[in-house]
Amino acid sequence: MAAGERSETISGSDNGLVFACLLDGKGGARRIGWTELNGDAPPDAPLWIHFDRGAEGAISWLSEDAGLSETTAKALLEEETRPRVFSSGDGLIAILRGINLNTGAEPDDMLALRACVTRDRLITVRYRPMMTPRDMLSELIDKRIGPATIPSLFVRLTERLTERMNSEVVQLDEALDEVEAQLDTGDTSELRGKLSNTRQAAVSLRRYIGPQREALARIHIEQPAWLDRELAIQLRESADKLQRYVEDLDAARDRAMVIRDELSNRLAEAMNQRMYVLSMIAGIFLPLGFITGLLGVNVGGMPGVENSLGFWLTCAGLVLLLALEVYLFRRLRWI
Fold first, then answer.
1. Does pTM surpass 0.85?
2. How many domains does the chain have?
C-alpha cells in the first residue's frame, strides 16, 4: 500500500492521527502509533506527528496531552488562518499555506499547514488532505532518503510547499499568453471569462504568498537556537522564491488589467465602427426617406400624378441625390 493511501487509513482508524514517525538520523523513519506516542517512545528521539484537525482525537490530544500551552494549541487548531510565524515556550509556531493539489480542487484554494517545531519534535496539523506531508512521509518510510533531523525536516517541508507554487504561477502566465494570442480571433465573452478567472486566481495566490514570504523571512531574522546557519540560508532561499512569486503575481495581475483594457478598447472600437456605418447609412437615406415620404402624402395637387413618366423621373432624381450625397460625404472624408 502506498504511503498516501496508508496515511488516509490511519487518519480514519486512529481518530485524527494521520501518521507519526521516529527519524533514525540517516534519512529514514519508523512509524509509531498512539501507544508509543503517549509514553513508550524514546524521550529524545526526533519525532514527527501529523494530525487531522477535523477529528476529535487530534483536538483532544493537542489541547490536553501534548503538553502545549493554550496559545500554541489554539494556533494549531484554528480553522481559518493566514501565514504567520511566532515563537513561544513550546517552540516555533508556523502557519503556512500550500497549493491545493487534491483531485477536483482549485489550486488557488490554498491549504493551511500548521506546525510546532522544536529541536526534536515536529507537530503538523492539517484541515484538509495535503500532498506535501504524504510525499515527505514516503521519502522517509519507503525510500529512506528524507531529512535526518527535525529542523531539516521542517525546512524541507517549507521548500516543498514553496516549490509547488511555481507551477501555478507559471500556469497563470501561460493562461494570459493564451488570452493574448486569441485577442483577434477568439470569442470575446469567453476570453473575458478566462481573463477574469486568471486575475482572480492571481489575487487569491497573492493573498497568501505575500504573508508567507514575510513569515519565512522572520524565521531567518529571529533565528531559533536549533536552526543552524545552513538551514537558515535554505529558508532564506525559500523566502526569496516567494518574493519572486509575489512579483510575478503582481505582474500577472497588472498584465491581466492591461489585456482587459485592450479587450475593452477593441470591443468599443468595433462597436463604434458599427455605429459609424449605421450613422452613414442613416445619413444617406434620411433625405431620400424625406422626399419619398413627402411624395407619399395622399392629398390633391401632387405634381406628376397625371404624368406617365412621373415615377421614373422621381427614381432618377433620387439616384442623382444619392450620388450627390456620396460625393459630398467623400469630400468631407466621412466615408
1. no
2. 1
